[in-house]
């Protein structure tokens, strides 16, 4: 349920939910279902990111770049392990929690297989940033235990600075690269939104929590506004990278 | 240099070299060159194993198996990091040390791309075991510091028991699978030996150390005997797996 921001919790300024812990919050079966969905999506997102980064490591122009991408993939796997262990600790089977998100995430990766090293880097950067924005949007509605886990696994794995540095250097060396990568980033965002909308339509409990717990069903307009905020943040990041989004 | 086994070092029963540390041993430039080669091959072997396991994770029949293979891949990457850090600590550029082994290892993996999940598991098991046999053969000729590192990164990452269990179950369910996988294991061993011979022919310092430091050049017959021992161990492992090698 959406509650007014509580001045008693200044340490978590964006907290719109009272600072309940998991034991208290999960007594509500709809909340519990929404968090299982959220963590299932996060876990499979990390596992899929591991696979994608390991695959993109093959496109690396040299061994040092290959090792850098493999390092990020291994970090994603550690995050996957943390979320899996957390699911198991609250008596949920990680595989069952992940199942509903395999289709949309695999489809996203299938439709956005990078054709070269730079496209792979832009995808790692954009994909990570969009996921982080989404989970930060939702973190304020979570109980303290779940929020702690989510913020921990969103910790930067070094993707951002590595990708930004390499992409900027490539655009500097050949400005035409910028136009191609700007189109690519636009396609990534489009496919991400289209799969996210598919998930929203399919997963009632999750969608309800996304918009702050409207009792029955959910407010599509509010979800639209959340997607707008994420798109705006993406546009700003692309501009910082030297790409017009 | 090959020395008789020293009864003063019962803790390392297979040590044929005096228990020197790296500082003392690396004063000999041929020894230093051989160890750089060995660690370069080990580092790239781990990085390539990471990529191969991450790739084979796609063949997994379900999410739990996929996660298990990804876990092994992440463990291989941690080993790669340890060897890389060790190379850096002895003032060697890991990328330079790995370069000579990229060709043979990539070629091995290109020629032995598994066509299904079970072939991938047999390859992970066989490949790991052969590499471990090889490094254990050579460990006794290493200084104490390098030996410690090598034995540490050969620590079982759980490949063996996972692969053995799955392959045995598959053969039990359909005994014809055993014939196909036995052929596959034979092919893996053949390609591994052929790439190993290529490395032996190319890398003088390494080959000299392999046979115990004959001063000039190396004894091909002794290398042949080492390969025989590794092949015999492989045959025994295949029999234990229910495959005739």
TrEMBL record, chains A, B:
<feature type="domain" description="Ferritin-like">
    <location>
        <begin position="29"/>
        <end position="213"/>
    </location>
</feature>
<dbReference type="Pfam" id="PF13794">
    <property type="entry name" value="MiaE_2"/>
</dbReference>
<feature type="region of interest" description="Disordered">
    <location>
        <begin position="1"/>
        <end position="23"/>
    </location>
</feature>
<dbReference type="InterPro" id="IPR009078">
    <property type="entry name" value="Ferritin-like_SF"/>
</dbReference>
<dbReference type="InterPro" id="IPR059125">
    <property type="entry name" value="Ferritin_actino"/>
</dbReference>
<dbReference type="InterPro" id="IPR012347">
    <property type="entry name" value="Ferritin-like"/>
</dbReference>
<protein>
    <submittedName>
        <fullName>Ferritin-like domain-containing protein</fullName>
    </submittedName>
</protein>
